[in-house]
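@channel anyone free to eyeball this complex?
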Amino acid sequence: MSELLYKNISDRIDISCEEVDKFKSYFKSDKVKKKRHLFTSGEICKYMYFVEKGLLREYYLDEKGEDITIQFGFEEHWVGDLYSYFSGEKSNLNVEALEDTQFLYLARDDFERALLSIPKLERFFRLLIQKAYVTTQQRLARIFTEDAAERYYNLVKRRPDIISRVPQYHIASFLGIKPQSLSRIRKTATI
Amino acid sequence: MSELLYKNISDRIDISCEEVDKFKSYFKSDKVKKKRHLFTSGEICKYMYFVEKGLLREYYLDEKGEDITIQFGFEEHWVGDLYSYFSGEKSNLNVEALEDTQFLYLARDDFERALLSIPKLERFFRLLIQKAYVTTQQRLARIFTEDAAERYYNLVKRRPDIISRVPQYHIASFLGIKPQSLSRIRKTATI
DNA sequence: CGGTCTCTTGACGGAGTTCAAAGCTAGTGG
DNA sequence: CCACTAGCTTTGAACTCCGTCAAGAGACCG
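replying in thread with the prediction:
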């Protein structure tokens, strides 16, 4: 089980199994049932979550009441509101489980302690945030240049299992369109 | 002149003037003429840029040849391709000057050296990246819920000087619409 | 003063939305 | 284990916003 965390970290930085085990000792482990929330907007995001098995969904509820999916948290993904986590301010995000989910979680204090004892993790987290940032920038650029059908087929290519694991209306909100439109896109033959 | 850098950093973390001066000694200073590029896609982004006076523009050129403005770099903004800067990989971004611009710049090695000698900057840069990340996420959410006119008026509210300083077709590309559409939005009376 | 770059305006078309209703499906309790 | 229901998906028709194409007006620079 700990292998997932090792894989995730060693993919980005040079690190030994022992160091990851030490790091892992700062985490706690828990499960959440489908449809339950890990936190909601207005609360402080106290933990960083690492998905071991299952599926989470990160979303905003804007002033107009629109539900906008920002990100899915599949296995081996990190989920949480970085801003709230590090600043201690209230979060605008919500995180719910789309499947029964098994995860590790790391409190803010333990994050600091872990970084003090394993300094090379500093680099890991910088890389993690950077990657999240670049990914979001690229998604933004795609919204401007690809139509909904292209975005849908690209998503399915990257993440074939999303179709069977995520309800269509959440996929639609992630793509920035309405469920009806996604339904019509799917009706048309695949490219 | 150094005051700007001090303001920018001390707004986010506790730091003394002396420490900022020390930090500043790792930077070099330069100017760039309007329409010149600081770097273009295919190159490695070797520096982080801090705008003292003037205006930069960060943009992608996608496969379809579309020019997509990702960010403007007004005074006191940090500009660069974080991904390329830290990874040493080629950048996909371009940065050009929209006005004659005076800036500080920091090479990758000097960044590391500076962080070693002033460890609290580690925190500053994490906050900087985080903020950029959160901002991009929120922009994405807005694209999905606000129409072009709302996005335009919100932008002008946050940045009134953008109208006089940035050509309309760049504002349009930042908003994700065509110049013609922005022209029509402007024709309609302000809310 | 001429040329190029930028902005405006008009007419038309297309992608996605909205509203509404009907068809499916999966989860629940009897 | 089946039947019922609530939630999800599909479909149709009308509409809206924005894009495209094209032409002309205006601004800026050498």
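from a first look: Chain A touches chain B at residues 60, 62, 64, 66, 68, 70, 82-83, 86, 122, 125-127, 129-134, 136-137, 139-141, 143-145, 173, 176 (CB under 8 Å).
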